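B., you asked whether I could sanity-check this one before it goes into the benchmark set. Here's the sequence:
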Amino acid sequence: MFVEYLIIVIYSIALVLIFMYSLAQLNLLYNYLSAQKKEDNSPKFDLTKSKEVPLVTIQLPVYNELYVMERLLNNIVKLNYPTNKLEIQVLDDSTDESVISTAAQIKELQETGIDIQHIRRENRQGFKAGALKEGLKIAKGEFIAIFDADFLPKENWLLETIPYFKDTEIGVVQTRWGHINRNYSTLTKVQAFALDAHFTLEQVGRNSKGHFINFNGTAGVWRKECIYDAGNWEGDTLTEDLDLSYRAQLKNWRFKYLENIVTPAELPVVISAARTQQFRWNKGGAENFQKMAKRVISSNRLSFKSKIHGLLHLLNSSMFLNVFIVGVLSIPMLYIKNEYEHLKPYFYMMSFFVISSLIFFICYWHMYKNSYGGGFKNFIRYIGTFFTFFSIAMGFSLHNTIAVLEGHYGKKSEFVRTPKFNIKTLKDGWKNNKYIRKKPSSHVLLEGLLTVYFVFGMYSAFIVGNQGGDFGLFPFHLMLCIGFGYVFFKSIFSKA
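And here's what the prediction gave me:
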């Protein structure tokens, strides 16, 4: 019985942690809905007065971005801001032929009078954080706007964000990500759905109540003084943006999140690229929990509620570990439930996952409704979207669990950039992209085995017990089978 009890205990702990996270999401939904009723009366610079126009530096950290560099630079130079108050730094760590074409384009732009510099380093020490730190040494701007290579800010972007820095306590202004290729494939739709939840429900829900949020690595502006006061960029985690965000807020700097300012960007269209991005984000999240959790807990100025939200925010990626545990152990639990009559009371714990799923369903519906509108037809579409999202998210749980465990255990790895493709429509090709990872991830075989494992879970529903089966977990096993099957087959065959 020891093994059975051990399975029950581990399964129950994972379920409770997921349930706690879902309750936090429900609280963020309440905060989000409350924030919609409030009017923003923030003080702002009047940029029509030359004396109030601050000097801004735009930093573009890039590494081997052959397919999107021309698009990026052509877009950035269109930003509407006084030219004598703006400089652009191209922080180029590239090691391929893109260096030559980028240098040529920058030279052409310089000849038109644009203050743009091509900054190169001898090595990639500190990766993106190191590049940002290097550029900061010579940055002339009081404020530092940062864009990754696949982001395309609109012309008035600076005019809509910089004014909020009139409040001297604001250290960061962050905008919401948009998606230029949202409808390219099932993969991009799922990624967009997840990011939309973060950039509406979570960012607004936390920011509106003064809880910690994070600069998202791009499409935001830092006050230079804030960066230095927080200890500058550090490259000891894979999510340097989350790291500096928490250090800045622990130093009492406030962040301003602008939900209505949307910065379009390109989503990964190849599953290997999505894996790379997911691995970096999830491992970095776990690394930052290890780095920041004690500082959050020991902070004297944070409320108990802000500490709880902060810890759950840092543990966000670790939810994949709990989902993976619940998924794998659900089949043994199905057999234990039907073999040991006296243990049945313990299986009320299973209802926690149903409740948690329902909470997520409600929270994400409000996010979806905000973007696409309500009504019966949209609700039916949402059900399909949510089912697809939930299934594929669970299908990534093994991959992301490995990332999380590496992060918590302190295993260091290189910052692997997400390949960019310059793709908007189905007519745009990607198969000749030189940055695509040709060899499938080593985790793919295990994902294939897990697909079969959850087929067995569905079969088990028909044969367990003596009451004609037990179908309570059948929908869960179906979603896990679809999720792992999708990730497995796409990784092996189409890669997109």
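One thing to flag: Residues 19 and 356 are 5 Å apart (CA to CA). Otherwise nothing jumped out at me.
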